[in-house]
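User: tokens in, sequence out, please.
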């Protein structure tokens, strides 16, 4: 059986996939990015943990569509996910969320994110 990489390496592998393959990370305003990161990664976490997902609004269904693609890609690329408990997956995805928020929002040098006229 393949050994799991350390948590930080898992987070970076998952972030690398998002940065290279997911166009949704490029919203032009920080509040859009905050909401989209929380919704897509939260829904992805629920899918990876086999939990129900709320789909009553068009917005929820839109985030769900991106989350389904992300969850499927993660399961396909990272076999070590299948060996993790739901608790471990939630902790991992929380780390992914924090890192993505840093890279795309708080650590970003893109001045357009906070330009109130944009």
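Assistant: Sequence out:
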């Amino acid at each position: 059986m393949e050994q799991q990489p350390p948590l930080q390496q898992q987070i970076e592998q998952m972030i690398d996939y998002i940065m290279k393959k997911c166009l949704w990370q490029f919203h032009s305003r920080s509040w859009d990015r905050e909401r989209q990161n929380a919704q897509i990664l939260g829904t992805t976490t629920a899918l990876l943990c086999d939990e129900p997902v709320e789909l009553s609004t068009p917005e929820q269904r839109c985030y769900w569509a991106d989350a389904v693609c992300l969850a499927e890609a993660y399961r396909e690329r990272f076999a070590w996910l299948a060996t993790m408990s739901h608790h471990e997956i939630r902790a991992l995805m929380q780390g992914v969320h924090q890192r993505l928020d840093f890279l795309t929002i708080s650590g970003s040098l893109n001045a357009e994110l906070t330009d109130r006229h944009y």
